[in-house]
Amino acid sequence: EFEPAGIGKDRIILDFEHFGGGKNCQTSAMVRLMHHLGHDISEPMLVGISAGMGFIYWFMKNMPYPIVGGMNRADCRQFPGILGKAARRLGGDYESILTKNVKKAHLFLKDTLNQNQPGLVCVDMAYLSHLLTGEDDHFGEHNFLVYGIDEPEDLAYISDRFEGTLTMSLKQLQKARASVYRPFPAMNQMVRFSFPQRLTPLKELIP
Hints:
Layout: E1 11-13, H1 25-36, H2 43-49, E2 53-58, E3 67-71, H3 82-89, E4 93-97, H4 102-114, E5 119-123, E6 142-150, E7 155-159, E8 166-169, H5 170-178, E9 190-194, H6 202-205
Antiparallel strand pairs: 1-6, 2-3, 4-9, 5-6, 5-9, 6-7, 7-8
């Protein structure tokens, strides 16, 4: 039985501009996060900067169906992978966590929100009602942004790839974040970025 942890009485909701669309949950979340921080870059350009194109076919006996993906995992197997590479090539940096400690993960999210940055989190798709997945459809590397929490009301404010924003139970969010189902456990993974006021010019990056 999952036990939520670290939930206090705070209400932190960012002045966040959501826009839907995007081809990939990870890179589209990064585009929206960077827009919030004052840096506009297209998703295709972000994929190019990170050398993000690739191919994966993954099918294990305990999986109900294979996973086929188009993102590069060859040289950046650990989250935040291509996002971390892109951030550093753009002149920024990042801090990420991976932990079984639900309270530690929640406090990291709160601290990120208090720094006026939405949290880019890993979640298990099996626990997300808006994706209409089944209980056995475990995939812990789905990414979206958490741009607000209301602890007294048990609410989390979510920006996914879709047209509108979403809300979900904060306790359910913690459960989705804490999932340890393999082969891609969410394990409370989350990343926080820092960028300079002026990014590395694209003319220098592209070659």
